[in-house]
Design brief:
The complex is a heterotetramer, with two copies of chain A and two copies of chain B.
Chain A (H helix, E strand, L loop, with lengths): L1 E6 L2 E6 L17 E5 L4 E5 L5 E13 L6 E10 L4 E11 L14 E5 L4 E6 L6 E2 L4 E7 L2 E6 L4 E6 L6 E2 L4 E7 L1
Antiparallel strand pairs in A: 1-2, 1-7, 3-4, 4-5, 5-6, 6-7, 8-15, 9-11, 9-14, 10-13, 11-12, 13-15
Chain B lengths: L4 E4 L3 H13 L3 E7 L6 H5 L2 E5 L11 H11 L3 E3 L9 H9 L3 E2 L4 H8 L1 H10 L15 H11 L3 E5 L8 E4 L2 H19 L4 E5 L5 E9 L5 E13 L2 E7 L6 H17 L4 E11 L2 E8 L6 H8 L3 H9 L16 E8 L1 E2 L5 E2 L2 E2 L2 E3 L6 E5 L6 E2 L6 E9 L2 H14 L1 E3 L5 H9 L1 H5 L6 H4 L1 H8 L3 H5 L1 H20 L10 H8 L1
Parallel strand pairs in B: 1-2, 1-4, 2-3, 4-5
Antiparallel strand pairs in B: 6-7, 6-8, 9-10, 9-12, 10-11, 11-14, 12-13, 14-21, 15-16, 17-20, 18-22, 19-21
Helix pairs in contact in B: 4-5, 7-8, 12-13
Chain lengths: 181, 501, 501, 181
């Protein structure tokens, strides 16, 4: 499938291969090969001379919200630099081209606020119709003995509240919607 | 006081840790587990297990009647409380004892005496252990304050006696500021809190958190096992500990340690305990409080002394005498502990419970991991976010630090976020490497951590990341050139990898 | 001699072990792997990897040209040989050096000198290290034998100089047996081997295998790191090791250790090496041979000294001086190592390569595991059967032993047989517990091990096993009573469990 | 299915349950419950008073030869005794009743010799028609650098040889057959 990939500020269209090539992969045009070893969680980049560079994946998390075409991929790679050890992280946003990216299938002025954590809604601090400023607390979600505040990412009016006090929420669950001013 | 079967009134890694020491001593273990912990390793690794119905802590691990019921049903004749939960409740000690079982820890009297901060502070003063200097109560007038300032030295902090939330507080750094500050503070105290009572204390700007491990038997014999430095904290939560502290000289270690032992002895303490100090400078360590239980960070002490602290808690409880004196307590090398919490350091440490889909922990020389995680385990959202402790040892602080880097590199947890990357950023900071940091380190270096933890796409675009991106792009460009138009929709291996994860 | 990227000419756990020490020192690692090892962890855990086509050792890990080619292609500037394979081949050292890379180990000259048993023995005699006493060559007559017998003492063994396979050998225990035995042995030697040459040696009935670890830098500084006791062997394969040896006194340790250091120094040795002794009694330790490489069992020495032996091999090779002298080498506590081999101890240790379907290794305080296994890994049948080493430490031998019991109890490997149960049987034997055993222990206690390892159904019928059987049977009996006749065929959960396994 | 179970010298017919009861198991007649936790490899025996006894499985291996009805189950359980730690092992032979047990589907006089290991046949030491005594070596199978001899379990005549020098063999693979004298 073709994907819209954004790395940093640069976005480009990319067809990711059906599967990352396996150990028997065809060489890339420059003679290198890239193979994903799922069980070992290792991406191996093989140089033309056969030397393999191991890129170990510490964590790979894929976030895909129901009803949306966009997919967020977050990968943390471990590799050894000439001096010492480095760990690199990137979040890559993938969207099938032609399809709008996350949240854009909604009315352009609506912003969905989702839970970043799995936990319990301790208290909803706003009501439908309330006007909030950027940074205002919207609700408190408790997880692992900690209270976590959900803040407004921008100013707007609360148009919809999807949860109530005491609700259990999963990561990615929609909490409320804000209409932009 | 002899016992054979020990109920562990706790969960997670510390329950497993206790099972191990019990097994070393030929004793049986009984786990208790809540419904949310039905798949937790501590349930399965113990010899016996009893369910505590419900999931909330109040219904389960804090529910004294439920635990006493499990004790009775399982035939256990002793209880180990672990840390947290009921471990410092005198009432629990009394309930266990009344049920005819041995509580592995201090007496409820010693626990309550040391647990009460005012009591404990008085006991410390009595035994010559320094506490934060200040006025005994409300200040009479500016003149009294001036006398105290001369005695204690600057900086000082003035606080409204009934105050809170940062209001009614003033830091004073010179004589000339003293009278105006006292007047302003009194005014605010009256305005906000209805009373003009103001007291003063020495203000500690960049404190170190240093704690001494003590161990006593039931016969009044006690030693300290040196100190731990727990200054790396975020919002008063310890994140990274080491032993010994790079801050103390050997003479200071001996002096503070001896004072800690004397004070605990005066309280009739028995078992393992920790005396926490707040340090303004190596010479100015003030008593803060005593924890009357095993600490999360006890492994770093075990690594530098070779002494199994939980094993000795159990042995002391069954009436054994300490087998060593102060002079026999080794201090060999250096040890560090990184707490692996299921929190995302890049998102303000937001907790992330959930399914652990893949897992690798470090191993090999001079590395230890205490954890209850396994691949396929769902971390429940009801309890603490600490899920593993990665511990290293080295002949020197530098070697322990380099081993920690290696151990963290081998640490791979997929499915939930962890603090692993935070620790890597910490180890890379020159001031941490130099051992010069206070409890405010994380707050002071917020910009540094933010940059290091942001998962900066620029970093990916450079260096190794570039190789991956380039390879993917090169592949794509080539294909794009070959096949002019749209491909049939295909599933990305990345997506699949993500799903497998 | 400075280097940055090190090729590890080995596989499995030792390759991983070397990666870890390299990482501790900030150096890069290059793995090599055969086709049979394409899924081995050492390939993935190293920073770089190069395939060695083929699977047989001769084509891969013993193939000097292939390894030199990998060295060149990977840009590595040093080679660590591990143990086994090419680790003691002087020709490999020379080839690596000729390719411009550093060999991490002794010079080929020192290696060959110590590797040649006759050379090494002469060197030892020169430096006052005792060797097994006996005749210098063939005996002239019975009279010479009588003189030697008086000098050396009984028991003696007479051997045909050209003999082998146990023929032409006679053990002599008293003067009166001497002349007839010499005549008989000479006769047999002529009859079977065509030469009447017979020589004699002291006969060691129940020997202990004790070896000293030595470590030298390139400047002639060397120390020993105490001894290891490796007497628990089966057909000359070590199975269980400990350090120190319960057999030696401190005075003997210092005496033998000093002799070992002197001899290695005379050979111009550098790096880590092991000098093996065969002990008839603590006072009678005879030089056997020197291993000019790291040993499988090196971790027990690391545990009692805190010294990273592989780290020091690397540091010495890059020109560092030893940072400690003999008096600074600690000996703290006791350590044990159990070799987990993919062999079935109940079936005469038949090797069992294959898929590891489920896996749990021990963790927690004072336990270390060195392994390349993971769940889902297929152990190839081409190489050694040793797949893991479980190592424990304790303040005393007893504590180390109890921790080993605990660690073995946490060791679970499904899919292939392992020697775990053998070690449990070993630890349960009173003579092992008492530390009184020789290299013939396993052979002498064959009946004990057979019974312990048989998987005696009677044992299952008793004790805990009875609970399971009873539960299943009770369940069945009940069902049998309820439903008179045949049930529809159903799949047993046990079968399913077995399949999942 | 009904199975013929032999534990020690005692054999009895037994219908093993469809699945070992899960965590929600029905109680056994005496009030105890038995539940198998596959992921944790633990068999939990719960007493009537709710106390669970953990029986950890160190290894469970099932040997089933192709074309034969019998199944050998070998389980090693770990449990803690009042004093110290014990590990218990048992091999249970399971056979569907009515069906003959292992090897018995063959002519009663034929004995199949199978490889106990996975490895390579180094050398076949006998030929078809050879008469061998009990304990005679029949072939050498190499695995993990060790030579393992296969011995005749009883006297007889070699009627068939299923492998040749150099063949790779899996555990359970038939090597040869002996006709009993």
């Amino acid at each position: 499938m073709n994907w819209l990939v954004k790395i940093g500020g640069v976005s480009f269209e990319l067809e990711l291969p059906d599967a990352l090539p396996g150990a028997e992969a065809e060489p890339l045009p420059d003679g290198r090969r890239l193979a994903w070893h799922a069980r070992q969680r290792t991406l191996i980049l093989t140089a033309a001379n056969g030397v393999e560079h191991n890129l170990r994946v510490r964590s790979a998390a894929l976030s895909r919200w129901a009803g949306e075409a966009a997919t967020e991929l977050s990968v943390e790679l471990l590799a050894s630099a000439a001096q010492g050890i480095v760990s690199l992280t990137a979040t890559v946003e993938l969207a099938a081209p032609g399809q709008s990216s996350r949240g854009k299938t909604e009315a352009v002025k609506a912003v969905q606020i989702r839970s970043q954590i799995t936990g319990k809604v301790l208290k909803v601090l706003v009501g439908v119709g309330d006007h909030v400023a950027q940074g205002d607390p919207l609700m408190i979600v408790e997880a692992m003995k900690m209270e976590n505040r959900v803040f407004a990412p921008q100013a707007g009016t609360v148009t919809q509240i999807a949860v109530k006090d005491g609700d259990a929420v999963q990561t990615g669950r929609e909490l409320l919607r804000l209409a932009k001013d | 006081m002899s016992f054979q079967r020990v109920l562990i009134a706790n969960r997670g890694e510390i329950a497993l840790r206790v099972v191990r020491s019990l097994r070393d001593l030929g004793l049986e273990s009984v786990a208790v587990y809540s419904d949310a912990d039905a798949q937790s390793r501590h349930r399965f690794e113990a010899d016996f297990a009893v369910r505590l119905p419900g999931s909330a802590s109040a219904d389960t691990y804090l529910n004294i009647p439920a635990i006493l019921d499990a004790l009775k049903r399982s035939g256990a004749d002793a209880v180990h409380p672990g840390y947290g939960f009921l471990s410092e409740r005198g009432a629990f000690v009394d309930a266990v004892t009344a049920a005819g079982a041995t509580f592995i820890g201090p007496s409820s009297r010693a626990m309550d005496a040391m647990g009460n901060k005012v009591h404990a502070k008085h006991l410390m003063i009595e035994h010559g252990v320094p506490v934060v200097p200040g006025s005994k109560g409300a200040l009479k007038d500016a003149a009294e304050l001036q006398r105290l300032a001369t005695e204690i030295g600057y900086p000082l902090i003035l606080k409204a006696a009934n105050g809170g939330g940062g209001r009614g507080m003033r830091v004073v750094r010179k004589d000339i500021e003293l009278a105006p500050a006292f007047e302003a503070c009194t005014r605010e105290a009256i305005a906000y809190f209805g009373s003009g009572d103001v007291f003063c204390e020495r203000y500690i700007e960049d404190p170190r958190h240093i704690e001494f491990q003590v161990l006593f038997d039931n016969y009044g014999n006690g030693v300290h096992l040196h100190e731990r430095d727990c200054s790396i904290q975020r919002r008063h939560q310890k994140l990274f500990e080491e032993a010994p502290s790079p801050y103390l000289s050997d003479a200071q270690r001996q002096k503070i340690g001896a004072a800690a032992v004397a004070a605990a002895k005066a309280a009739g303490y028995s078992g393992a305990g920790t005396i926490e100090f707040i340090c303004e400078s190596p010479e100015r360590a003030y008593f803060m409080e005593m924890n009357t239980r095993i600490q999360v960070e006890h492994p770093v002490t075990e690594m530098i002394t070779g002494i199994d602290l939980i094993g000795w808690q159990i042995r002391v409880a069954r009436g054994e005498k300490l087998a060593f004196q102060q002079k026999d307590v080794p201090l060999r090398g250096w040890s560090m502990e990184a707490r692996i919490n299921a929190e995302d350091p890049a998102k303000d440490f937001a907790p992330g419970p959930g399914l652990v889909t893949a897992l690798t922990f470090p191993a090999g020389p001079f590395v230890r991991v205490d954890t209850h995680l396994y691949a396929g385990y769902a971390i429940p959202s009801h309890y603490d976010s600490m899920v593993a402790k990665v511990i290293t040892w080295g002949e020197t602080r530098d070697e322990a630090m380099r081993r920690m880097s290696r151990a963290l590199m081998e640490t791979k947890v997929e499915g939930v976020p962890t603090t692993t990357r935070f620790h890597e950023a910490l180890l890379a900071h020159p001031e941490f490497k130099a051992g010069t940091f206070s409890t405010r380190f994380i707050e002071q270096k917020a910009a540094y951590f933010k940059e290091k933890l942001a998962g900066d796409p620029a970093a990916l675009a450079e260096g190794v990341g570039a190789l991956v991106a380039a390879a993917l792009t090169a592949d794509e460009t080539q294909r794009g050139a070959d096949h002019a138009s749209a491909q049939p929709p295909r599933d990305s291996a990345w997506r699949r990898a993500g799903r497998e994860a």
